[in-house]
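# step 3/5: fold
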Amino acid sequence: MSWVNAALRPVFDLLLAPFAGLAPIVSLVIVSLVVAVFMLIVFKRTSNQAALADVKRRIHAGLFEIRLFNDDLRAILRAQNEILRTNLSYLRHSLVPMIWILPPLVLIIAQLQFHYGYEGLRPGATTLLTVDLEPDSVPAGVRPQARLDLPPGLRADTGEVWIPAESQLAWRLVPESEGDFEIGVAVDGADPVTKTVRVTERTVRLSPVRVDRSFFSQLIYPAEAPLPPGSPVQSISLDYPDREVSVLGFGMHWMIPFFVLSIAFAFALRGRMKVTI
């Protein structure tokens, strides 16, 4: 999974870079349009369009029958039964294209989350750096020896805080200037592990946590390369603020306008692209 993320990260960075200085909703509109076109193309090529068109005609016929014979209970029940059976057929015909659409859509959403889901740090604003250690790497009652390497532009407001119950180390950091930084954390003489830090107001890829290389960890947190194998560090995280996308003056999670716009574009373009959905 890590090699898939390594291939996707620069692609999304490159495609979204021209919009980094604009309001997030601007690029979300374009991304939603592209995703809608992608879904329509896949749906058209992987579904039985003739069968779907026939199913939709039968559903419309059943609805027309209910309206036409609205005083005949037997006819209404028969039409409703036919509509139910036809809807099941519609779901069956839609299953194959959904199998083709959902996996790439999940990967797309995972990448977009780290462009739109968080805001970059600001100079002077405090944030929390947390390092979770492998429980087996820390003997009971022993405080690990840790070293934090910070580049110019970042400073630690406190020394490390050790939380034995969580096998966790924490520092409070303060960015002093805008820019892209890399910090290093070394524990008990092991090779340092690094973590990216971005101090910016632009809409760019942000990595709140760097995790191991397991499949699900990389699926959920694809924004940064996995931690090296054999490291005593289980994860290293930075407290980026959550972002709300402004839509007509209302702040909301980015997935709401993304899904609404994608569905709206798909229905608006289905006729032009000659797709039955």
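# step 4/5: annotate
The chain has a mean pLDDT of 89.
# step 5/5: archive (pending)
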